[in-house]
Amino acid sequence: MTVQTTTHLNFRGDARAALEFYQSVFGGHLAVNTYADFGMPADIPGADKVVFGVVAAENGFRVMAYDIPGQSEGGVAGGGSTRRENNTTITDQALFVSLSSPTLEELQGYWDSLTMDATVVEPLAASAWSAGFGMLTDKFGVTWSFSVAAQ
Known about the structure:
Low-confidence stretches: none
Distance between the termini: 25 Å
CATH topology of the largest domain: Signal recognition particle alu RNA binding heterodimer, srp9/1
Order of helices and strands: EHEEEEEEHEEE
């Protein structure tokens, strides 16, 4: 039996923009269905928002997203922040998206793309536990943890 987990992010109106951005970073196929696609009258506010969206790439990247009905403030739901203070990561966010690769070079390309309009929590660099580790909060409020996978 094979099990696969997929991060499913809930947004306040930005799901489509986030999915398109993640597809531009990781490649792959983008599928988006709106509330109107599932029968909501098109003239109702929010009918154009995402009820189901996914990016799936050959490299193993997969993320799903959804817009919470009636919310349009933008960004990922739950909010919160993540920062470094006194060599410690301080956060009140419920989750991070963790990305790992066998090489720092592969991670660097994704890092460089995701840092556009992002807040870097910890620069991507060698650490005591990994040949490469870094954290950032992207322009949609999603915090990503990068690490080179141990061989």
